[in-house]
Amino acid sequence: MSNSCALCGATGAVAPTAVAPQDVSVDLCTACAAGVTDGPQDGPHWQCLHEAIWSTEPAVQVLAWRLLKALPEAPWARDLLDMAYLEPDVLAWAEAGVSDAEEAVVHRDSNGSVLSAGDTVVLIKDLPVKGAGFTAKRGTSVRNISLVMDNPEHIEGRVESQRIVILTKFVKKS
């Protein structure tokens, strides 16, 4: 049994943590174990996932993939998730342990296309931006959108250097 965290490599107090739904456990420090159980908050500690996702241990890859998936607003996590390759059986294991709560909210554009975080959309209507004093013009491209996880009709994006909430019925995926 190793005396270091399988994700971040911290030495000292580590405890075995189960990687459901398989009967496998890995040793994690208290910070990593808390992130696995309560969900991670974007911060410097999670940069350790850059190494962990490429581990030769499937259980470590599964935990790293799940933690990256739980950081949808962190651009570095999305990029790392896009680059990462997991064998099909390891990916199935990782997906089996992710709750379906976040999958329940599906964001669709005006044409019914599913929107994802990081997509580029185009405005299909002039939109007056409340409180900002300008109108977002029809045809404006909004890159690298963020999804409002508790509302399928709202996305966020930058228009004229302002971060605004946009209704999905006024955009189309490009």
UniProtKB/TrEMBL annotation:
Keywords: Hydrolase. Residues 107-173 form the Protein YjdM C-terminal domain. This is Phosphonoacetate hydrolase. It holds the Pfam family YjdM. InterPro entries: YjdM_C (IPR013988). Gene3D superfamilies: SH3 Domains. Signal peptide: none annotated. It comes from Shimia sagamensis. The lineage of its organism: Bacteria, Pseudomonadati, Pseudomonadota, Alphaproteobacteria, Rhodobacterales. GO terms for molecular function: hydrolase activity. The keyword Hydrolase applies.
